[in-house]
Every structure is written in structure tokens, then in C-alpha cells.
Protein 1
Amino acid sequence: MTTARAAAALAEPVERVGRGWTAALALANGAIWVGWFGPLQILLASQAGDFAPGSGMSKETMLAWVTGAGAVVSLLANPFFGALSDRTTARRGRRTPWIVAGTAGGALSLLLLAGAGGPWTMTLGWCLVQLTLNAAFAAVTAAVPDRVPRLQRGAVGGWLGAAQILGVVGGTGLATAAGGIGPGYAACAVFTLVGVAPYVLRHEDLRLAPADRPPWSWRGFLAGFWLSPRRHPDLGWAWLTRFLMNLSNSLVLLYLLYYLRDRLHYADPDRGVLILTAVNGLTLMATVVTGGVWSDRVGRRKPFVVWSGVLMALATAALSGWQTWAGAIVASAVLGIGFGVFTSVDFALMTDVLPKALDRGKDLGVINVANALPQVAAPALAAPIVTYLGGYRVLYLVAAAVGLAGAVLVGRIRGVE
């Protein structure tokens, strides 16, 4: 590794990345999402249904506890491993070692989860999946501000978003087609390993020079996780808007299987989840890349995020007022359109407000807490609403209001057009 290349690890990138690099990073990102969403959409819900009888908990409550515990782990793991990758001076670079270790650990954890014999081992397995895959995810997302110039980040974010939804659809499809809980977890584990291989094997990472690594102290390391909203107001508002939008989306997705089974009485709810996920994925794919490219060309971010959020809120409200299979199909399609634009442009907006190059991984990890924290908050909000406070109609109205608040607050970000 040359001195110039080592110094580039902390420089603002100016050279556009090629299609091969973008495709390989997107595939790695999608593979990680397969490892998350095969369990989240199908397998964990099925295991909760198996383990709930005799446990004293409903399947909804058990699923809420398991996913909530995993989300707490994710909440801590993402910024922690992002910060560790910022300080890594390995020969293979700052990010690649964590991508390799995280995906290998994630595959093993999925296999452990496949053999869970009760709610406690299911919870342990899911927490290990979140711990390991978040190590890989933190490194993958940090590679973008490391390597991609600002006016290409909307497009690259679009391809990462496209891979994300393909990962969601692919994970759901693998879990459904595998024919059982054990085979479903095994299929997701294998795909996660295979999907990261092209990026790891074909693309050289930027190495941090040992002289550029800051001195280590636990106090300084832990203090770095606090990003003051007073000192960095744009980052604070950007974090809050992402949290609210993701909370709205999490409230929609968490009980989708149970919504189809218990409210719509759909004959094959597993297949129904796959159909709705595929519809959502198709419309998302139609907007996720074009939205990011368009944002790069006009040099603006906020209008795209605002109007995509408004559209998502309207679609979520439709789930409350139009509780039929046709209504679910239409809402899934419209949600995909809005979330496609939001996914790519909001990612670019986040990278635009990062404070320091030395802390990109850690800062993006703190931002990614806005993805993980809704997984904790959503079960805490959704379980009592569904059980005691009006059911799915009220749940989706609350989700719509939360998403609309996120869209409105984007206007408080001042440093980005």
C-alpha cells in the first residue's frame, strides 16, 4: 500500500467509482439484508408461533421481545464496529476485515438460530445475528463516504437501496421456498456468505496509516459516540427524520404476517407476505436509482426526502382505512415508490452532513442507530396498540402520523440544499 493510497483513507474522495465497484458493494449490502429479513419476515414469526403455546405469551408478544432484544444489540453494535473499523490499520484495509468477520459470524449465527429449541435460544441466536451482521453492515456503509465523491452518492446510494430491497425480497423468498425453518435459515446463511465474496476478493480497500490512528483511550472512544445536536444541528435533525421514517416503516412491517392471517384472513399468509414484499420491491426498484441520480443532477436533497415521506404516510394511512387484500397491494406499491426515493436520497443526505473523515464509520454507525432503534420502539408501540388500543386500524394511523412528522422535520436541516 503506497503512502499516497494510505493518505487517501482520510481524504475527501474526488475520483468517481466504477460500475464494478458499485455493483460488488451493492451485492454485499443486499446479502447482509438477506440475512436479516429472511428471519424477520417469515422465520422468526413462524418460530414464535411454534414456541408461544404454553409459554404464557402470545405469538405477537414473543416476537416483539425477540426482535426488540435483537434491535438493542444492533443499536450498540453498529456504531461500535463502525468506530473499530475507523481505527483499523490492517493490511487489507479499514473496512474489509470487518466485512469478512461479520458475514462469517452472521452465517454461523443463522445456523445456530435454525436449531433453537425455545424462546431463550431463539433470542440468543437472533442477538448474535444482529451483532455479527451489524459489524459487516457498518463497514459496507462506511465504504461509500470513503470512496464516493459527493455528487455521485445519490446514484450509489440508489444502487445500495436497490440491493437492500432485493435482499428483503430475496430473504423472504428464500425463507418461503426453502420449505421449513431450518432450511430457510441455512439458505439465508449461504447466500450471505456468497454475496459478499465479489467485493472482498476483487476490490482493494483503503488502508489507514498507523500514524493517522488517534491515540486510544476508553474515555475518548466512548465520548465519541455522542454527537451533540448543538454542535452538529444538521446531523441531529437528519438523524431524527431518519428515525421517524424508519419507525413508521417498522410499524408497518412488524406484524404484516399476523395482519394478513388475523385481520384479512388471507388463505396463505406466508405467500401473501412474499407477494406484498415483491410488489413493494418492484415499485421501489423503479424509483430508488432514478431518485438518487436525479438528486445528484439537481444538487438538492431535501425536497426528495420530504415528498417521498408524504407519499409513504398516505400509503400507510390507506392500510388503516382500506383493510382488504386489494388495499394491501395498492399500499405496498405506493410505499415502494416513496421508500425508493427516500432510501437513496436520504443516504446521500446523511453522508453530506458527516462531521469528520476520521470518524466516518463511527458517525455512520450512530446514524444507523436510527435504523435499529425503531426495531426496539416498534414492538413497544405496536404490541399494546394491536392488543388493547384499537388493533391494526389504529396501528397504521399511528405509523402514518410518525412518518409524516419525519417528512416535515427534514426542513430543519440547513446545510444541505
Protein 2
Amino acid sequence: MATPLTIADLKQLAQRRVPKMFFDYADSGAWTESTYQANESDFSRIKLRQRVLVDMTDRTLETTMIGQKVSMPVALAPTGLTGMQHADGEMLAARAAEEFGVPFTLSTMSICSIEDVASVTTRPFWFQLYVMRDKDFVLGLINRAKAAKCSALVLTADLQILGQRHKDLRNGLSAPPRFTPKHVWQMATRPFWCLDMLKTKRRTFGNIIGHAKNVSNITSLAAWTHEQFDPRLSWADVAWIKEQWGGPLIIKGILDPEDAKAAADTGADAIVVSNHGGRQLDGAPSSISMLPSIVDAVGGRIEIHLDGGIRSGQDVLKTIALGAKGTYIGRPFLYGLGAMGKEGVTLALGILRKEMDITMALCGKRDINDVNASIISRQGSNREMSRPFRKVTNPDFDDILD
């Protein structure tokens, strides 16, 4: 394949290079995957207004997310097992994000540790926190993120229990991978991936092994992980986390206006409208379909970001137009990483930037900070809906479509 032009091109290359169990981990959702699919398809239902004979010079995508300068309103989302898409994956992705001028968010369930990523970056990155039953371990993670000079903490609120992901169960996913005949075959058919993995010592959960109590190997790690996600996590815990952290706090996993109001009440700096990439509650609405009602509920009280389904720069632009201040990409950068390592992450970001820039210009805007709902077409093109658009101040998703 020639130089990839789209995120879909990178996905195709990643599928050829990454063993099936790890590619499927990145490229799957829970149960029937209906929410995972809706995250993508609902973006295509939103149409843009083409504007002509306007000055398109001196365009800029530069803005801020939680007060931090970014080259475009995109952050790399926290993704578990990133270091299984490519050897030292989190370190490579963090460096690519830093060079591009966008935030990188390290997952609690990363392969490379907080300290690993800090060792190869010169600017602060963000850290995503899962709350475990072992509060000493949680406090240890927070303190390690402070020591690494992380500039924001992203608290994931929608993983108190794990959604059932059929592909992962059928593949027998683990990190490091098991050495059954099926797994050996999957790896043997991806020799370049294997060669890269042989060169690194990072093949399991770097933030956990050696840090959590009585976790020293893969067997004890599996038991600990199964038991530790805390189903009792509640809004009351956010105050404790906020106090221990003491810096900018982002709450990820908000998909309902009532939860958005509760999140704003905590004093957090931002929320991420997200359904965990369709990997938790299958049958939940897409992230983008819930954005307008959440903006309507809390837009003046707390900064709003969005995660889920973004596969192009147009998707980013539509999200900003509907009231979000920033977006997160997970699968797009994972596809780039799996396909081409650090170069692939940079390429994925470049693809999004170019698509966003060109689309913004063709919608008659030059500055991302001037993009709003005026670029959304009120003339519906969804064949399943024929009613005329009802002009309202704060449209819901159906209002936007037609």
C-alpha cells in the first residue's frame, strides 16, 4: 500500500501486522457491538454547510483543552494494552503526541509504566485513573503521576464492572499472551511484531506488577485485576480523588445529562462524553448523539470533551460545532501505532489535522475557536427522516439531523 491517506488505510495495515487477539481488542465492542457501530455511523448522519467566496487564508486549529494549549482539539485517549499493538507502544505514542502538540493520556492498564513514559517525554502528559478496591494502590498511582509531573488526571467513571466483550473472550486475551497453539500461530503469522516485542522487556501491565500488593507475576496479576475494580465507586469518591490529586481533573464516561450535572457539581475541570468506545453498555446511545443534550445541561458550568467514533477530521469538526471543547481518539492512533509505530501515530494525527483544516475552510471558517453550530446543515439528508428541521436554541440530536 502507498502512504495511507485515511484512518481506514491505517486500520487495514494494522490488521496485517498485529496478532489477531490484540487487533481485535482494539477493534471491538461489547455484546452485539451495536453501540460501537453507532459511535461511527451517527457522525455520518450529521451534514455540513458548504460556504463559498469567503476568505480562507491564515487558518488555525490551535486552541486549549482545560486551559492547556493544543495544536488542534484532539487528545490521545487512554487505551489499555497499547504496548501490545506495538512494542513500547505507550512511549512511542506519547512522543508522537508531544511532537505534534496534543495531549497523550496514559492508561492505568498500560504496558509501559508512568515512569517509562516520563523517561521519554519532556512535556507533561495526562494520566487516566481506574479506582480499585485497594485505596493504597490508588493513592500510589496518584502520587506516581504527580512525581511524573502529569498535568491532568482523567478519572474513568464507567468501568466499575467489565462489559462482556465476546472477541476478547474467544481469543483468550492476556498480556503477555498465552502460549497455546492458537496464540503461537497468531504471533507466528506476524513476524515483524514478534521481532519488535523480543527487543523490549515491557510485555505486561507496567503500572501494576511490582506496585500492587502481592502481584509479582502474570498469574497473581490476573487474580488481582479480576478482584480489584471497585463496584462501589460513587460520586462521593470523586471528592477524595480530587483532594489527593490537587490538579486539573477530568471525569470520563459521562453519557447522560443527569450524570453530567452531578459531575459538574464535583468541581471537576472537564467531562468526557463517552460510552467507553462501545465496550461497556451495548445498546447505549452513541457519544455524539448525546452531546447536544449534555451541552444544554451543563455547557456553561464545565468544559466538555467527547470520545467515541471519531475516524476523521470531519468528525472532530462536527464535535466542536456541537459544543465540545476537545475530542479524544483511541482506535485511530492505535491503528497508526500497530501499522507503523511512532510514525503511524504521527501520520494518524496528520490525517485528522488535514481533514479538519480543509473541511473547516470549506465551511467558511478560519479559526477553530469560531466553529459552532452554524456550520451544521439544518437540511436533513437522512433518508429515514423526512420531517423538516425545527429551529430551536439548543437542538437535540434528532433536531440536528433534519
Protein 3
Amino acid sequence: MELTLLGTGSPEGLPRPDCPCAACATALGGAARAATALLVDGILLLDLTPGAAFAAARAGHSLGGVRQVLLSHPHDGPSVEVPAGLPQPGRVPDGRELALLTGHRVRAVAMDHPGTGYEVTGPDGERLLYLPPQGAPAGVPDGQRAYEMVVADVIGRPDGLARLRAAGAIGATTDVVAVHLDHGVPPGAELTRRLAAAGARAVPDGTTLVVGAYEDVPDVPRRTLVLGGARSGKSVEAERRLEAFPEVLYVATGGTRNGDSEWADRVSAHRERRPGSWSTAETCDLVPLLADDGPPLLIDCLSLWLTYAMDEVNAWDDDEWAGGGERALRKRVAELTDAVRATRRTVVAVSNEVGSGIVPATASGRRYRDELGRLNAGFAAECEHVLLVVAGQALTLRG
């Protein structure tokens, strides 16, 4: 089964008309994207968009053989003119299946957002799932056979991928292609990096793909360290890297700090951001978690873990530090980095980068700064991917 993406952008396209934002200003030439429309084997058109016939011609195809046009979502604005010879567009009721004379079968999948998803099965049994903008499946039965290809709004609804993964509908070899791309993410390297974290990719308008053919599916880094200063966006970046995966265990190392209302507000903001399917463990006992099998871990953050470890060995006291506290802390850090090296789990950890600012005025402050630098360096050495977040922008240091 052959799929041609006549467009890969949001319903408004990219760049949006008259939008002055930086993403739209740079989405020119090959980075521009028309509204998403899919041509399957030249006979099935999913979403009719303005200029579809010209887009098909540019991709070396014709719409002359199209026998069915299906819409996945309500189309706002003026009605799109139906090119001569094309059947009138329609939608299949949720749960119903449409059989084409060519041997293709199309089943409508219910969404949790206005619109309809379409599961297309080719004559040889290969399966494609196409989801509308801002849409995720309303329910996915467990134990599904993995699709060969999923075409979806990865950036807008990463939780949709999480649902499909949890049910087995996305497997290790599923080619996940991002569409409905809008100006929320800058194009180029940042888009590629953001999608790779979800095990997905983007392709230019006009690309033709063979459903079921082997593709180099992006590998999700198994161990990632996200560094950054205060309010840099490092925690948001770390959460983004796992939001397309179900059953993440969020490991909060800061505790509740009873009586500290400002800290409680911070904790509440973090919890509200996280998907409802994630669970939380408030602990600094990281080594057993890393040794166990289980869902991905998001550790936030190592700097608070270090504070706990230094408290445990009384590292703030100069005499205790010289009398064995330093050796005890080094041992704890080595145990943690050894556990990271040996873990089989997917891990994303957050830590503060504090060594680039003002030199602390106290000996204990300088000791903490130095030990955090050593911890970050040791942890990063065991990670496939290391990011530095500055002013909300993620810079790749490794991977």
C-alpha cells in the first residue's frame, strides 16, 4: 500500500496567513506545509484540501483514479471546491467499515475530539491509521496488532500515541509520521529532535511512503539528562520527552516540605502538567528503582537528590566532611551512576546547572556547587542523550 502526503501541515497551513511569529517567518520553501491530505494507492483521498489536485501533480500523481474521498474533521472557512471527476467527500460513522472494490477496507475510529480517525487496510493486509488534528482515539482495546504506519498529530496530541502504545497498536517497527504540523514548534532541527523523542518523524509535503516497508524508525534515547538553570524550562523539556509513552513513573526527589506554601505551589503546578496516566513516587532512593524493571522513569531532580545525600553524610560540616563525609558522598554518587549504567529502564533525569553564575559566599555553598558539577558530569557520562535548556531552548550536548 502506497501513501502520498499531499500536505502535512495544520488546517491553516504553515506558515499561517498573516502570522508574524518566528516559526511562520522561517517556514519557507521546503519548510512550508499545506494542510494535511493523504492519497492512498491513488484511489482513496483522506481529507480534501485547497490545491489538492496541484499537490498531487507536483508529487507525480493524479486524482483521476480516486474513487472515495473521506473527511477526518470539520473544515472551517469557505467550502473547498471539489475538483471535476472526484466523488463528493463524506465521513464514515464511527465503528462502521467501508469496503472498496480495490480490496481496501476503511474502518472509522471514534475520537475524543470532533473528527474521525480512519484505519485503512490494504489488499495485502498492511494497516495504516490516520488521525485528525487534535484527535486521539477515544478508546483502544488492549492486545491490538501493531499498525505498520500511524499518521497523526504527534505534537498536538502525544497522549494519543501513549494510548496506542499501551494497547500494543504501536510497536517497535511502527512508522509514526507526524502531520497537522503547526507553528507551535519551530521547523528544522528542533522539530526533528522533538519528534524523535516520541519515536516519530516528519516528511516534506509530496513524500510517497510504502506502508509496511522497513524504515529507520527513530530510536528513543534510553537514558537522557536534561540540564538547565532556574526557570529555564528544563522540567517541561524532560516531561515532553516522555509524554508520548504510557505509565511513566515520576520520581520527585524534593518531598512535600510541610508548611512551605511556595514549594507546595510548585509541586501542584508540576502535577497539573503531567498526564493523568503517570504515577508519582516521592523518594530519593533511586538505586532500587533503576535496578527494577518497569515503565520509564522521570527523575526530577538530581540537585535535590544531592542535597538529601549531603544531608545524610553531614557534608555541610567541615570536620565531618574531612573525617569521612567526602568519601561517603563519593560512594553514594558512584552507586547512582553505576545503577544508571546498568539500568534497563528508559530514564529521563533533570538537574540544575549552577556552576556558571556567582561564586557562593560560603564554603558549604561552594562545596554543593562543586559536588553537583561532579554529579552532573558522572551522570551525563552514562547517558546517550544530554540536553542543556537555556531560555526555553534545548541545546543538544550529546546524542
Protein 4
Amino acid sequence: MALIDSKELCSEQSCMSKLDSKVIQLGSSSVANSAKIWPENEIWSIPYTFPVHERASIGYSFVHPTTWENYWVPFAKKYNVVPIGFDPPGYRAHLIGTGSDPGTPVTSPADFENRKIRTTQSEVISTAFDELGMNPVTISFADTLQGMKSGVVDGLEIITPYAVAGQITSITAQVTLTQWAPGLDPIWCRVDFLKDLSETERAAFAEVTANLAEQSIQRADRMYERFQGLSPDAPVEGSNFHTQGPDDGPVQVNWLSDSDLEAWRDPVNPADNRDLYDDAIGRVHDEFTDGFFDQLHDIARESGVPNQSKNFTLDAWWDDYLDQI
């Protein structure tokens, strides 16, 4: 991706269609937004598929050999696109604007009830919102800052680095770390572009993208805890959420206890509420690999998941499977 004259080549909602039509060869969009064009990607947004407070499990599962074989290979066969990198994986969080701040910690789904919360176009996330009693509103990310200022929305749920980049923290009173859906923003690349590279070019491109992807996962904990400031001691002094809140002050960061998290997790946990996500799970099982969601759920909890993201090592990458696509 490049910026030309301060305008994006594509947006969160147009990158996928521009990839499909060969306007671009690479583009970036979260898995949640990409599901509008590639609906199988809804499976990545099912809340609490991944265990809480384990960012390494997200990246680990995303590039696990079983995931490549049973998800990304059939995905690439269908859409001619494969992920070749991503930002440090984390969790989406819930933010409340200053205009609707009740002055007390906003920690439970009941505290968000009937609030207008901006979200992506993901059907799965909207379904979870409904179950939790919240009011999902779909507006573009570009319109969210003004929407929070004007009251079109009361807050949003988002991958937290985007809240900083979009200056949304400047009008945010509180961020609640619900640990619910993974924050994944892959770089997507056309398969035919990769296959058209010479063997030498492809080997170099694979090596560089693999190194960057591995480093991205390895630095996830440090990025969220030290630079974003989203740790149990949050907001960490000098971090994004400490210095880039209202009036350049701190945003109140709500780190939830296990009992607080249960109120979020229990109504939407796929282990006990699988019927909520029948369409998303069934679509993948019908189109790609039967039973993949259960594989993904187990991969995120297997013994190989590192206890800290810095200990992650990459075992499989797109070039290992290109001949199968």
C-alpha cells in the first residue's frame, strides 16, 4: 500500500473489490471488513474463538500449518488472494466518547446497553452486539471521528491502534478491554501476481514477508502494553492512551477482571452459543473444510501457543502452499 497525494489507493471497504478487479495487486483491510466481499472471513470475528489475554494465540492460529492447508489454500483458490502480512495481532476493544461519559467505569454489557456503537460491516459482530443488548451502527471509519463529536454514535469497537491513528482517542473518555474479537488487519496479495514473479523474486518476497510477519507477531505484546498502554496498569505513562486522550491527557482504561469478562463472554461464547454463528461456520465448512472452526478453536489453545508473543516463531508461510493453489 502507498499513499499518493494524501489519498488512499483503496479504503477499508474498497480494497477487496479493487483486488478482485486487478486495480491493485496488494491491499490492506481487516478480516472483519473484508467479510463483506469474502464472507468466509466472518469466521475470524466470532467472539471468544481465541482465549483472552493471549495475543500470541491469534497470530499463531492465523498462520498455523493446519490453517494454511484447510483455510487459506481453499480461500486463495476461490478468491485468488492470500495474506502476506499483517499488523501486530490483538483484540478489538470498546470505546466511549466524552459526550456520553457517565463518570463511572463502563465495564459491563449493561453499561453499553442502547448506546450507538460504531462497528464494522461484519454480520457476526453485529449479531454479538444484539445478544449483548448494544446498538450497532455501521458508518465508515473515516466518518467515525465526526460522528462521535456530533452524537451520531456514542462510541465504537475497534482495533485500538486505529483509534490512535484516527485521533479518536482525543474524544474518548474510556476504553473497555473486552478481549472479544481478534484485531487482525492483513495485507492481501493476488495469487496470480505472486505466481508471475520469477523464482528469484518470489523467494526474496517470501523471505521478506515471512520475516516481517514473524516480527509483527513477536512485538504484539510490547506494542499493545508499552506503546498503546493497554496493560493491567494502564494507561502506561507516556503511552498512546496516556498522552493522546482528551486535552492530551489519559483515556480511562478499563482492564476487566475474570468475572467482568464472563458477562461479556457467556452470552456470545461460541462454545455454548454456537447457533448464533451457524451461518458463518456453515459457510466455511461448506465452501472450504468441514470442521475447520473446531480446528481453529483447538489450535488457539494447543500446547504450542507461546505464553508471550516474543517467543513466537513462524512454521509455515504462503510460499509453502503456492503450488497447491
